[in-house]
C-alpha cells in the first residue's frame, strides 16, 4: 500500500559529484548560498546575546531552542502542504524567502530580547516550511541506492556555505567597525540570491521520479504513515538524536571559556565545525551507501559523546579546539544527511515530504527540550557537570538507537 518499497532506475556506476544529478546540485547551490546568509547571523548571535545583552545560560537556552525547535511543527505543515498541492519547489521557495526577510527584521529588533525572539521564530518558520519539501525533491531525484551519496553531496555544499558564512561575517564586522547591522543587511542580500537560484534552476520533478498519483493527498493518508514500524522506529531514533544534542551555541561558548579565544575570533569556531562537516559529509554518505546507513549514524552518536567529554577534559588551547571541532563536525556529517537517506526508501512518493517532516519534527522538538534543560543544568551545576550529563545522555541515546535501527525491518 502506501509504504511499499519504491523501485527506481539504478544509479549510474562511477564516482564523484556528477552522478547525483542536476537537481541535487541545484538544490545544493541554493543551500550553499542560503547557509552563507544564515551562518553570518548564527556565528555572531551567541556572542551578541550572552556577552552583549548579558543573557543567562537558561535564557540563551530558550532562545537557542526557539531557533531550532519552536517552529518544528511547521515542518509537518510544510511537508503535508507540499505533498497535497504537488508544489514542493514553490513551498521551499516561500520558506527561503521568509528567512531572507527575517534578516532585515533583526535591524528593527535592536536590543529587544522579545523582538529578537520573534524575528528568530520567523526565520525558523521559513526553515521549517522549506526543509521537508527540499529533502523530498532530493529523494525524488535520486535512486534509493545512491541516497547516501546524494544527501552527502548536498550536505557538503550546505557545509561550504556554513564554512564561508562566519568568514564573511568576520570580514563585514572588521570592515564596518563591528556593526551588527551591516552583518544583517549583507545576510539579507545573500539570502535573496539563494532564492533566485532556486527559482531559475531547480525543477519540481525529476525524470527518475515516479508519476504522481491521480488522487490528492489526504490527512488520513499522512496519519497512516505512522502504521509503518520502520518509520516509527526511525522517528524515535531522530527524537533521541535531538535529546542528545545541546546545540552549537553552548559548545562554542564552552570552547571560548576553556581556550579564552578572543571575542573577535569567536565566529571562527563555527568555521571549524563546518570544515569538518565539509570534508566528511560526502565521503560518509558514500560509505553509508556501501556498508549501510545505520553504522554510520551510530558513529555520529559516538562522535557527539566524544565532543562533550572533550569539553569537560583537563586540556585546553589548540589541542582542545582542533579535537572538539573535528569531533563535532564528524557528528554532523555522520547524522544529518544519513538520517534522511534512511527515511527516504520507506516513504512513498505521494507522502515523501510529509514523512521526512515527521522525522525532522521529532528531532527538532526534542532539541528544543534538550536546549532548555541544558541551560537549566548549566545554571544549577555549572558547565562542566552539565556537559558530562550531556555525554551520558548521548551514550544512552546511541545505545537505544542501535536497538531500534537493528531490529528486523527494511532500514539499512
From TrEMBL:
Its main location: membrane. This is Major Facilitator Superfamily protein. It comes from the Bacteria. Keywords: Membrane, Transmembrane, Transmembrane helix. Gene3D superfamilies: MFS general substrate transporter like domains. The chain crosses the membrane at residues 16-38, 58-82, 159-176, 182-202, 234-255, 261-284, 296-315, 321-343, 364-381, 387-406. PROSITE patterns: MFS, SUGAR_TRANSPORT_1. GO terms for cellular component: plasma membrane. GO terms for molecular function: transmembrane transporter activity. It is found in: Cell membrane. It is a multi-pass membrane protein. Residues 23-410 form the Major facilitator superfamily (MFS) profile domain. Pfam families: MFS_1.
Amino acid at each position: 500500500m502506501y509504504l511499499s518499497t519504491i523501485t527506481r532506475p539504478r544509479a549510474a556506476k562511477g564516482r564523484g559529484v556528477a552522478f547525483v544529478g542536476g537537481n541535487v546540485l541545484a538544490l545544493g547551490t541554493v543551500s550553499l548560498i542560503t547557509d552563507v546568509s544564515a551562518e553570518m547571523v548564527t556565528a555572531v548571535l551567541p556572542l551578541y546575546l550572552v556577552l552583549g545583552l548579558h543573557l543567562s545560560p537558561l535564557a540563551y537556552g530558550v532562545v537557542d531552542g526557539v531557533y531550532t525547535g519552536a517552529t518544528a511543527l511547521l515542518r509537518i505543515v510544510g511537508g503535508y502542504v507540499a505533498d497535497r498541492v504537488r508544489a514542493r519547489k514553490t513551498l521551499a521557495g516561500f520558506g527561503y524567502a521568509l528567512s531572507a526577510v527575517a534578516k532585515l527584521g533583526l535591524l528593527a529588533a535592536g536590543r529587544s530580547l522579545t523582538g529578537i525572539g520573534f524575528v528568530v521564530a520567523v526565520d525558523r518558520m521559513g526553515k521549517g516550511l522549506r526543509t521537508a519539501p527540499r529533502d523530498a525533491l532530493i529523494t525524488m531525484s535520486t535512486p534509493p541506492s545512491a541516497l547516501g551519496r546524494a544527501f552527502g553531496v548536498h550536505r557538503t555544499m550546505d557545509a561550504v556555505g556554513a564554512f564561508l558564512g562566519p568568514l564573511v561575517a568576520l570580514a563585514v564586522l572588521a570592515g564596518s567597525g563591528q556593526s551588527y547591522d551591516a552583518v544583517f543587511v549583507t545576510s539579507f542580500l545573500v539570502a535573496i540570491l539563494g532564492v533566485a537560484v532556486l527559482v531559475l534552476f531547480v525543477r519540481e520533478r525529476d525524470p527518475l521520479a515516479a508519476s504522481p498519483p491521480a488522487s490528492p493527498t489526504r490527512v488520513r493518508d499522512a496519519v497512516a504513515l505512522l502504521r509503518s514500524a520502520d518509520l516509527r522506529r526511525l522517528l524515535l531514533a531522530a527524537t533521541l538524536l535531538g535529546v542528545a544534542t545541546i546545540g552549537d551555541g553552548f559548545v562554542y561558548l564552552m570552547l571560548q571559556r576553556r581556550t579564552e579565544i578572543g571575542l573577535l575570533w569567536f565566529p571562527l569556531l563555527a568555521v571549524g565545525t563546518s570544515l569538518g562537516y565539509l570534508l566528511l559529509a560526502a565521503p560518509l554518505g558514500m560509505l553509508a551507501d556501501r556498508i549501510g546507513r545505520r553504522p554510520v549514524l551510530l558513529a555520529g552518536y559516538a562522535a557527539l559523546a566524544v565532543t562533550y567529554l572533550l569539553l569537560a577534559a583537563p586540556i585546553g588551547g589548540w589541542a582542545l579546539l582542533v579535537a572538539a571541532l573535528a569531533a563535532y563536525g564528524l557528528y554532523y556529517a555522520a547524522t544529518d544527511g544519513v538520517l534522511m537517506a534512511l527515511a527516504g526508501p520507506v516513504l512513498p512518493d505521494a507522502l515523501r515530504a510529509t514523512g521526512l517532516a515527521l522525522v525532522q519534527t521529532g528531532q527538532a522538538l526534542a532539541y528544543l527540550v534538550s536546549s532548555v534543560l541544558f541551560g537549566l543544568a548549566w545554571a544549577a551545576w555549572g558547565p562542566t557537570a552539565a556537559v558530562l550529563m550531556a555525554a551520558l545522555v548521548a551514550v544512552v541515546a546511541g545505545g537505544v538507537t542501535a536497538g531500534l535501527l537493528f531490529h528486523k525491518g527494511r532500514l539499512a
